[in-house]
Prior knowledge:
Blueprint: E1 8-13, E2 18-24, E3 31-37, E4 42-46, E5 51-57, E6 60-64, E7 67-70
Antiparallel strand pairs: 1-4, 1-6, 2-3, 2-5, 6-7
Amino acid sequence: MNDLQGDYIVIKAKAQGVQVIGLTRGQDTKFHHTEKLDKNEVLICQFTDHTSAIKIRGRATVMTKYGTVDTED
């Protein structure tokens, strides 16, 4: 397994309707997957050869091997 596929992040929704959007890798960055989380739901995401970025809309806690970040209101 290469380093791109080794990173996971955990997203915990702190409010209803948190959106998690996966963005593609390559010359043209596009949305390729969307999830909507309810309050206190948890999603575990992985960066892959296809996913280069993850966008989060709404109040959430994001946990990575680098630390924890809370989104702003």
